[in-house]
UniProtKB/TrEMBL annotation:
<dbReference type="GO" id="GO:0008892">
    <property type="term" value="F:guanine deaminase activity"/>
</dbReference>
<dbReference type="GO" id="GO:0047974">
    <property type="term" value="F:guanosine deaminase activity"/>
</dbReference>
<feature type="domain" description="CMP/dCMP-type deaminase">
    <location>
        <begin position="1"/>
        <end position="84"/>
    </location>
</feature>
<keyword id="KW-0378">Hydrolase</keyword>
<dbReference type="GO" id="GO:0008270">
    <property type="term" value="F:zinc ion binding"/>
</dbReference>
<dbReference type="GO" id="GO:0006152">
    <property type="term" value="P:purine nucleoside catabolic process"/>
</dbReference>
<keyword id="KW-0862">Zinc</keyword>
<keyword id="KW-0479">Metal-binding</keyword>
<dbReference type="InterPro" id="IPR016192">
    <property type="entry name" value="APOBEC/CMP_deaminase_Zn-bd"/>
</dbReference>
<dbReference type="Pfam" id="PF00383">
    <property type="entry name" value="dCMP_cyt_deam_1"/>
</dbReference>
<dbReference type="InterPro" id="IPR016193">
    <property type="entry name" value="Cytidine_deaminase-like"/>
</dbReference>
<protein>
    <submittedName>
        <fullName>Guanine deaminase</fullName>
        <ecNumber>3.5.4.3</ecNumber>
    </submittedName>
</protein>
<dbReference type="InterPro" id="IPR002125">
    <property type="entry name" value="CMP_dCMP_dom"/>
</dbReference>
C-alpha cells in the first residue's frame, strides 16, 4: 500500500498471472493505483509498505514516482528461496550491460541521439 500523510492512497497486489502482465507486481499495481487516484505521475512525500522487498523493476518505478521511503517484510534472498528472480536480477544489474544473461548492446547511437536532441529541444516538453 501507498500512504500519504497517514492516509492510504494506493493499494495493490500481484496480478501477473491473473492479467498475463509480467509488470503487474504488487508494487507496480499500487503505484498505478495511487497515481490514478491522486491524478499525478509523482508520489512525492509518499511511503510504500510492501510484504516483499521490491525487485529492480518496482524499485525503478518507486524512484520514478519519487516515493520517499519503502518498508518491506521479507528480502529478495527470501523470495529467491521460493523461486523468484528478484535477487538474481539485482545481481545481473551489478554486471556490465554486455555481460548479462540478457545483454544490452549499443546500436545506432548517432541516429538515436538525433531523436533525443529533438525531444530535448521541443518547447512543449514536460519534464518528470
Ligand atoms: N516484491 C515483489 N517481488 C516479486 N517477485 C515476483 N513478483 C513480485 C511482486 O509482486 N513483488
Amino acid at each position: 500500500m501507498i500512504v500519504l500523510g497517514g492516509e492510504i492512497i494506493g493499494e495493490g497486489w500481484n496480478r501477473v498471472i491473473a492479467t498475463r502482465d509480467p509488470t503487474a507486481h504488487g508494487e507496480m499495481v499500487a503505484v498505478r493505483d495511487a497515481c490514478r487516484r491522486i491524478g499525478n505521475n509523482g508520489l512525492q512525500g509518499c511511503v510504500l509498505y510492501t510484504s516483499g522487498q521490491p525487485c529492480p523493476m518496482c524499485l525503478g518505478a518507486i524512484y520514478w514516482a519519487r516515493i520517499e521511503r519503502v518498508f518491506y517484510g521479507f528480502g529478495t534472498r527470501d523470495a529467491a528461496g521460493i523461486g523468484f528472480d528478484d535477487h538474481f536480477i539485482y545481481e545481473q544489474l551489478a554486471r556490465p550491460a554486455e555481460q548479462r544473461a540478457i545483454p544490452e548492446i549499443p546500436l545506432l547511437r548517432a541516429e538515436a541521439l538525433e531523436i533525443l536532441e529533438a525531444f530535448a529541444a521541443d518547447p512543449g516538453r514536460v519534464r518528470y
